[in-house]
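Case study.
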Amino acid sequence: MTTKRKSTKPHRRTANAPENSFVAGGFAPAPEDASILRLDTKPRRLLIGGKWVAGASTRETINPATGEPIATFAIAGPKQVDAAVAAARRAYEGEWSALPAAERGKLLFRLARLLQERSREFAVLESLDGGKPIRESRDIDIPLAAAHIFHHAGWADKLDYAAPGRRPRPLGVAAQIIPWNFPLLMAAWKLAPALATGNTVVLKPAETTPLTALLLGQLIEEAGFPPGVVNILTGAGQTGATLAAHPGVDKIAFTGSTAVGKAIQRALAGSQKRYTLELGGKAAHILFEDCAIDQAVEGIINGIFFNQGHVCCAGSRLFVQEGIADTVIRKLKRRIETLVVGDPLDKNTDIGAINSPEQLERIQELVAAGKAEGAECWQGPQTLPRRGCWFAPTLFTGCSQSHRIVREEIFGPVLAIQTFRTPAEAIEKANNTPFGLSGGVWTDKGAKIFKVTGALRAGVIWANTFNKFDPSSPFGGYKESGIGREGGLHGLHAYLDLHHQSPTMS
Amino acid sequence: MSWLTLFSIALPYDRWKRLRSLQGAARLPSDFHLIPLQIRWIEFSAVMNQASSRFPDLSALPPVDAIGIDERVRRAQTRSLKGKVKLDALHLAVTMLDVTTLEGADTPGKVRRLCAKALHPMPGDLSIGPAAAVCVYPRLVKTAAEAVADSTVRVASVATGFPSGQTALKDRLSETRQAVRDGATEIDMVISRGLFLAGRHRAVFDEIVRTKEACGDAHIKVILETGELQTLDNVRKASEIAMAAGADFIKTSTGKVQPAATLNVTLVMLEAIRDFHERTGRMVGMKPAGGISNAKLALQYLVLVRETLGPAWLNPEWFRFGASSLTNDLLMQISKQREGRYPSIDYFSQD
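After joint prediction, the assembly is written out as follows.
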C-alpha cells in the first residue's frame, strides 16, 4: 500500500469564499435592451376607420419602474368615440360582412404569426409600460395572446359546428374595454373571438398601459384587415364610459374592477345590448394535509406573486389545513426570500413594479388596514428600488374572515393566510365572499379534488396547479366576479346571435 | 447444545430476528467466530439500535407532484447568469467535479491521465480547480490514490457490485472494505433497486447501514439510480431511506442507465435534503451524475442548489457533479468569459 498520505485534505475554499459572487447570492444585471422599440417622442394617435388620427387631448404614459415618461398618447373624446363607432358600423355593414369566413380566419392567422415574429418587441414594450417582469411578458403574456388568436382563427369558418342546429350570426359592433394588468393578452382575448365571429370592434386600452394595443393596431393594418374592422381609442375612464353607453354599440365586453362593472350594467339596463363582464376576484387557494407541499408552495407563489398580484384570479386568500400550516408558512417564507424584485426588463426579475402610484396607494392602504385589524404581517427581505412604484412580497398570518384584507380585492403582492380543520370548513370559508372568479385545491387524493372543486362557487378552479390559461378553456366569474365567459365555446357564443335555427333543422 | 443456540437464548427475540434478516440468510458468515462474537455484537447492536430508531416513517412523506416539479425546474432554467457571477459559478463548478471514468477498458494509464486532469484542469492556471475527486472502479483505486496523493483531490470508488448491485451483500461489503484499504476516501455505493421496488425498504436501509459501517472513515455516497426507480415519489422515498441510514451524499445515477441525472430528480432530492436538514440538523451532500455534459446545464444545477438549499451547500464538501465530459466545456466557457471568444478545442487536453 502506498506510503503517501490519503487525499483527505480539505478542498480549496477559494472558490466558495465570500468573494465568489455566485455563492454570495444575487445575479448580475441581465436586462433586455429597450432600444429595439425605437421609441420616439411623436404623440401616439387613435386608430379610427383605418387612419391614425389625433384625439381631444394628450396624456403621458409612465414607466412605473422609474416614474419616467415613455410616450405621449391621445385621449379620445366623444367626437372620436362617435367616429370610431361609425367606422366600425360601416366596416361591419360593408366589407367585413361580405368577406368569406375563411378569409377572416386567414387574416387572424396572419395577425397571430406577425405577433409571434415580433414577440420580443411586444414583450419589452409590455414590461416597460406596465412594470411586469420580462420573464412573464416573454413566456406568458405574448405567447398566450398569439395562442388565443390562432385558436379563434381556426373557428372563423367553422361556426356552424360551434352551435349545432343553429345558424350563428355576428352581433355587430363590439365595444371592448380592457384593463392594465394584461394589456396585450386582454386585447387578444377580446379581439380574437369578436373578429372570428364576424363582428367589428372598438377597443379601448387602459390609460396606464396603452402602448402594446397601439402596436397591435399597426400589426392589424399590416395583416390586411379592412379599415374600420378594428378601431383603437386610447383614453381614461371617461372615454370608456362614453363608449360603453354609445347607442351605436351592440355588445360590450369589459374587464376591470367590480365597481366599474356595476356602473356599466346600470348604464345598460333596459337596452338590447349584450354584455360580458370580467370583474374582481378574491380566490381561495386551499391546501389539504395530503398535498405535495413543496409544489403547493410553488403554486401559492405563482398564484399571488404572478404579475405583482395584479391578477383578477390571483390566489389571494390561502387556506391551509392546520396540521401543515407551520410547515407551509416556513417553506413559503424561505421561497419568497429567493425571489428577485426589481427592474422589470431584467430576465431574472420575479416581481416587477406596481403598475401605477394609485394602485400602490390602494395596496398600502389595505396592508395598513390588515395590520390595524390585528393580522400579523411578514414581508420579503428584498430591498426595493428607490424610484418608481414598488411593493415587497407580503404575507399576513392570523387573518380572519372579517378582515378587510380577506374581504376586499387588494390587487397586489399580498397574501392573507387562514387555517382550517375540515374540508367542510374550508369550503364554507372559501365561498363566504361576494366574489367567485377562481380557486385552487391541492390534495393528492383524486376523490377530494372532485368533491371540493364541485362545491366551490367560482368560475375557474385549478387542482394541484394555479393560474393556467388556455384559449379553449372558458374563463369567467360567479357572483360579483362577472357575467359571461371568455375563451372556449362559451366565449365564442358571447359574440354570436344564436336565435336563428338552421334551415335543415326547422 | 451448539453455540448458536446459546447465543440465541442470550438475545432478545427481535434483535435476533433483525440480525438474521440482515444477513439475508439464516447462516452466519463464515468469518463469524465465537470469541470476537461478543465484541462484534456490541458494535453491531450499537449500530442497529441507532439504525432502528432512524428508519424513516415513509408514510409521513409528502407526495411529489411531477408537473409541479417540472414547472419549478423550468422556471429555474430561465435564470440568466452573466459576467462575473457566471465566471465565478463556472470556477465553482470545476472544483465540484468528480472526474469520472467507469469503463471496462479503464487501465492504470487512463486513470493516471484522468488524475492529472483533476489536479490541473487548466495547465499553468492555478486559479482553476483542482477538481473535487476522481471516481474509478475499485481495482484502480491504488493507482488513483498514488496519483493524487498529498493533494486535495479525493479518490472516490464505486463499490457494491456497481452498477447493478446484484451481488451478495458480503461480497459488496468486502469490496467496499478493500477499496477503502486501497486508499479510497469516498465510496459511491448503489442501492438494491430490486429490493426497493419489491417494497423491502427496510432491507435497503439495512444494507446502506452495513455498507456505511464497512466504509469506516470514508464518506459514503448512496446512488439511488433514479432512472430505475421511475417515479418521483420513489426518488423521494429512497432519498429519505439513504439519508436516515447515514448517507453522507445522495447521488442520482450510475451513468449506466438512461435517464441518468435530470434537473427534475435532482430537485426532488434537494428538497429531501433540505427537509432532512430542517428535521435533524444534519447536512447531506448531493451529487447528480450522468448526462451533465455542458456548462450551461451545470450552472442550472447550481441555481437549483442555491435556491433550494442555500449557499452552505455551494462547495465541494456538499455538492458534486459526476461527469466525464463536463470538464472541458466548463474550461471552454471560462475562457470565453475571460477573453470574449471561444478558443479552439485543441487548447484543451482530451484525456
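Observations recorded in class. Chain A has two domains: 37-279+484-497, 284-473. The first strand of chain A starts at residue 46 and ends at 48. We will return to this complex in the next lecture.
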